[in-house]
Amino acid sequence: MRLTVIGTGYLGAVHAACMAEIGHDVLGVDVDAAKIADLSAGRPPFYEPGFEDLLARSLASGRLRFTTDLREAAAHGEVHFICVGTPQQAGSQAADLRYVDAVVDGLAPHLSAPCLVVGKSTVPVGTTVRLTSRIARLAPPGVRAEVAWNPEFLREGFAVDDTLRPDRIVTGVTSTEADETLRRVYAPMLAADTPYIRTDPNTAELVKVAANSFLATKISFINAMAEVCDAAEADVVTLADALGHDTRIGRQFLNAGLGFGGGCLPKDIRAFAARAQELGAGPAVAFLDQVDEINQRQRSRTVLLARRMLGGDLTDARVTVLGATFKPNSDDVRDSPALAVAAELHRQGAQVRVHDPEGAAKASLAHPELWCGEDLLTACQGAELVLHLTEWSHYREVDPDKLARVVRTPRLIDGRNALPHDEWRAAGWTVKALGRPAPSREERRSAAPAVEALRAVIASPATGPE
Ligand code: UDX
């Protein structure tokens, strides 16, 4: 089938290449000429495992091309996928739909044959209905373009696999023709028995924000338990393991630590709360404000813990942050909890060095005030405190003995509860993590001021990063 994929960010570029991989003739479209030049030359504009090979294969097959021209897209596509960003509006919690609207406005006047426009971006419920009348108004007389919604659930770091082997396909359609078209697009996945849920557009739009809200809630739930564990001298990791054995709960997304970030979860729960408010259903999802607040609080708690471990003052303290991206296996630094903590430590006077295996360049662009690099030993040279804030597998393989010889004081905060603490302690490191008691009475006594400080943050949640 002839498909266009409009918007070639993390979602669109991967979707376009995967659609070519399963045999479609795909045209990727973006307003960013530099990005289109990179993609056309087989250079991924972002780091995503497996994507570079897939892109090379798709380009070589002749089934994937890129353009900046929406007119060309209008002529090419039987199905047009909208994959542009829906960021948070400046000064509001709501989603900014200007890029989605711009695609429709740019595409509709050039359509010359019936087609299906399929949104994949995460949008407020009601968007399909709104875009349907917008297209009808802008398309040439007699040209019928139907709008459907087909949310994307891919995770960065697993984007290729999630797109080629999704857990489920959800389509919000208003006609049998649209349903049949989408079944043809996804025929190889359906042949592999992927669950296919056909519903109305409003429900399809809601499935996506509900899924992300649930995931965010699960993370904030375990981080709330970490706060209680700090108050009670209990261990949140053992707690999560024990909860996870209950198959109704499951262990996934119960990793306590610095909390969630990235281009999706934070802005999606805020946009959902804002949209529910508009619909008069605000109280039903008011808990999402708390989910957000608990999440932000883990950043303040980590900064506070760092300050206490350094004797109460960060001025000129040499601090190293391991990890800049919002999660491992991605170079995405959008709303990265690790970078937010690094920036706050810097603001409070610390000399901060940030290490990341893939995200250092993007981190430097976002935070020019921070030193960001890809060499671990240089980043850790002379450090008085190391904070492990993004759980790249790379860091689990670090030799704590070797690192102890490079730093000035072997002190570690494990903000992701992902390092082998016993090994680090055996190598002479003082280790502290949110929601975890110190293992010995002696260490507990020396950690007491830090634990007190963490209790204070829970007691006055509105304080924000100190
Ligand atoms: C998310 C959804 O998972 C995906 O389905 C949707 O399409 C887009 O948003 P993504 O943002 O790529 O995907 O990352 P995800 O793996 O969900 O992690 C989100 C954040 O939560 C990361 O910052 C991660 O570090 C954090 N997280 C995740 C935790 O803090 N604890 C956990 O247990 C799991």
From TrEMBL:
Pathway: Nucleotide-sugar biosynthesis; UDP-alpha-D-glucuronate biosynthesis; UDP-alpha-D-glucuronate from UDP-alpha-D-glucose: step 1/1. Keywords: NAD, Oxidoreductase. It catalyses: UDP-alpha-D-glucose + 2 NAD(+) + H2O = UDP-alpha-D-glucuronate + 2 NADH + 3 H(+). The keyword Isomerase does not apply. Its EC number is 1.1.1.22. Coiled coil: none annotated. Residues 320-421 form the UDP-glucose/GDP-mannose dehydrogenase C-terminal domain. The keyword tRNA-binding does not apply. SUPFAM superfamilies: 6-phosphogluconate dehydrogenase C-terminal domain-like (SSF48179), NAD(P)-binding Rossmann-fold domains (SSF51735), UDP-glucose/GDP-mannose dehydrogenase C-terminal domain (SSF52413). It holds the Pfam family UDPG_MGDP_dh. Belongs to the UDP-glucose/GDP-mannose dehydrogenase family. This is UDP-glucose 6-dehydrogenase. It comes from Streptomyces zaomyceticus. The lineage of its organism: Bacteria, Bacillati, Actinomycetota, Actinomycetes, Kitasatosporales.
